[in-house]
Amino acid sequence: MTEQQFIPQAYANHVSSGTVSWESPSNIALIKYWGKKKDQIPENPSISFTLNACKTTTVLSYSKKETISDFDFEVYLDGERKPDFQPKIKTFFERVFVYLPFLKQYKFKIETSNTFPHSSGIASSASGMSALALCLMSLEQQLQPEMTTAFFNKKASFLSRLGSGSACRSIEGDIIVWGDNETVKGSSDLFGVKYPYAVHDNFKGYQDTILLVDKGEKQVSSTVGHNLMHGHPFAQQRFAQAHENLSDLKPILESGDLDSFIALIEREALTLHAMMMTSMPYFILMKPNTLEVINKIWAFRKATSLHVGFTLDAGANVHVLYPKTEAKSILEFIKTELAIHCQNGQFICDEIGFGAKQLQ
Ligand code: PMV
Q: Domain Diphosphomevalonate decarboxylase-like N-terminal, which positions (predicted)?
């Protein structure tokens, strides 16, 4: 598919006002997207587990204006007006306007809330942007009712990507691939697709306990980080490695080989941070407690042979990943050994999920 296919024909229906609502989850990348071209086109493919508990609920109310003017919208978080969210949404509206030409015809109220604590250091951009994109697609579907579900999901992912790259992996579940690559049939730089191959039962209900090691504002945003991959001395090798890792992951997902799975995802996480540490300017997002946690996970794994591993996103928090069958002992370990390295002892128990849901 090309971008052009997301530009709608004249709409069939007239819709004057209404409300739509979606809840959309966050996701955690196993193979990381780090480095992008224009408009959130990724430099390399990525694959993620869709999460279940960490999600954003968005209610979009719309009413048609008398005359077509500039974008007209208000944003609320937990019932409170958020003028500081306006610029990001405005940029998003500008980017997607060509694909959603009705945007200037309506006045919008965007009411959003997250299940995870505000300022927990968990990025709400993936769940937030995907929830908004889905609401806008629900309005477009009313204007153009013959739209298929497959097209709806693709375009929702496509629009989410224009809001925040990794958001395009939050529409569906449980495993999503984003970025053109030879290994995965149907993969695209434009949107996320469901991983289309066999996945072993070992990965059903896979657990992700998110340790809130540092809840502060990140010193370097992911936008800045992505841009530092331009001219990065290891960029080309890193992009090639992501393709190789994706092809290596396929037999691992099929056979349920958890040792190889852990080795691959931990190396991916550390490679992401190695790219940050070797860019110019260089930076470190891990904190002392991130390393404490990693070392304890390694020691515990060695001592028990349980299949506990970690991944990191662009921050200090640690995602502890493990199979559901081993959850009891590993959660006990997290509570007794790892929680002390979290701010206020906080962590969030999540697991692999199946994507966004429309609410009534
Ligand atoms: O979607 P962004 O621009 O916030 O970038 C996300 C980057 C990582 O979380 C580090 C990796 C990924 O693939 O999600």
A: 25-183
pLDDT in tens, 57-78: 999 999 999 998 899 999 999 9
Task: Quickly tell me which residue has 């794994």 as its tokens.
Answer: 301
| Tens digit of each residue's pLDDT (9 = 90 or more) over 285-312 | 999 999 999 999 999 999 999 999 999 9
Give the pTM: 0.97
% helix, strand, coil for the chain, step of 5: 40, 25, 35
Model pLDDT for residues 148-189, shown as the tens digit of each residue: 999 999 999 999 999 999 999 999 999 999 999 999 999 999
The per-residue pLDDT for 1 is 84
Pocket test for ligand 1, best of 33, 224, 312 (most atoms within 8 A of CB): 33
The token duo for 94 is 């500008």
Q: Which of 81, 101, 85, 115 is nearest to 143 (CA)?
A: 101
Predicted confidence (pLDDT) at residue 107 exceeds the cutoff of 80 = yes
Q: What is the DSSP letter of 15?
A: -
The pLDDT of residue 216: 77
Q: How far is the CA of 222 from the centre of ligand 1 (A)?
A: 7
Q: What is the DSSP string of 223-266?
A: HHHHHTTTT-TTHHHHHHHHHHHHHHHHHHHHHT-HHHHHHHHH
Domain 3-197 in this protein, CATH class:
alpha beta
Domain 202-351 has CATH 3.30.70.890: yes
Q: What is the CA radius of gyration of the chain?
A: 20
Q: Is 160 in the pocket of ligand 1 (CB under 6 A)?
A: no
| Residue ranges per structural domain of the chain | 3-197, 202-351
* Alpha helix stretches (DSSP H) within 48-207: 86-96, 125-143, 149-163
Q: Ligand 1 centre from 24 Cα, in Å?
A: 17
Distance 284 CA to ligand 1 centre (A): 16
Helices and strands (H, E) in the chain, number of each type = 8, 14
Atom of ligand 1 nearest to the CA of 40: 3
